[in-house]
Amino acid sequence: MGLLVLIFAVSDIVALLYISHIFDSVFPDPLVENSKLEIANQYIGLEDLYKSGTANASKLNPILIEPRTIAQVFRDKPNQLAPLGEHEHMTELGTIAPREQHLYIDANTHTIAQFRAVDFGMEDCSLVVILPADGEPDEGDIPLKMTTASTLVVHALDTGVPLDIRKLSWRTKPARVKEVASFVPRAGEETFATRFPCEWASLHTFEVSCETECLLDVWSSHNGTWGIYIYQHQTI
Question: What's the rounded Cα separation, in Å, for the pair 161 and 33?
């Protein structure tokens, strides 16, 4: 009897190991594998159509695009991972994870923001910072925190794949390619940073830091539009 129980136990363990192997091989980490896939072109033929001159595009206003990924890395803590779910909280229905954007910069904290251009024919982009007025509450009644005359510096980063925020730190962030902007944001205003070409489906990743000692801390969610964004402008 004991031998029979042992045989069944070993069989169950082997079966579980085999199932685990199948899932690991057939269903790999989507954040890793999907990032390598080319995005299907749903605009087939449109470029040739507009180049032919037989069709004219309607006039379109710029489209505001929020970052797909935005997170902080820490110069004084190079191995510390980017924070996740800072405003997650428990309710009777379970864990609530608000869709939020956090732009935070100080002497040791830089913000990494990654955008994807999403539309054909809107392939001229501008990077902007939009801030509430002094004293105006943003997400969760948290006020804007900013030192006056804070000069921000923006670098383009070298990556063509989506960032895995679970592994993002100062040590693992993509390398800088070049400085693309230096500007002073103003409370209650939209401040232009830089303009750049943005082919549809392309990724654009930026690192925002202080030129000298400074502080900028602003939250945003679906209830407001504060922080760092890009506009896509019409090119057809």
Answer: 10
Quote the CA–CA distance of 136 and 144 in Å, as a whole number: 7
Tokens (6 digits) for 150: 């804070």
**What's the token pair of residue 219?**
């939250």
Nearest to 83 by CA among 168, 192, 155, 201: 168
N- to C-terminal Cα distance for the chain? 78
CB contact set of 236 (below 8 Å; sequence gap of 6+): 50, 57, 120, 121
- pLDDT bracket for residue 93 (50, 70, 90): low
Locate tokens 């990654």: which residue? 114
Quote the DSSP letter at residue 143: B
The helix (run of H) or strand (run of E) holding residue 178 is strand 176-183
- Please report the DSSP string for 16-61 in residue order: HHHHHHHHHHHS--HHHHGGGSPPP-TTTTHHHHHHHTS--PPP--
What does the pLDDT look like over 50-75, one tens digit per residue? 777 777 778 889 999 999 999 999 99
- For 136-175, the pLDDT digits (tens) are 765 556 788 899 888 999 999 999 899 998 999 999 999 9
Q: Which residue do the tokens 């057939």 mark?
A: 26
Q: What is d(CA 83, CA 102) in angstroms, rounded to the nearest whole number?
A: 10
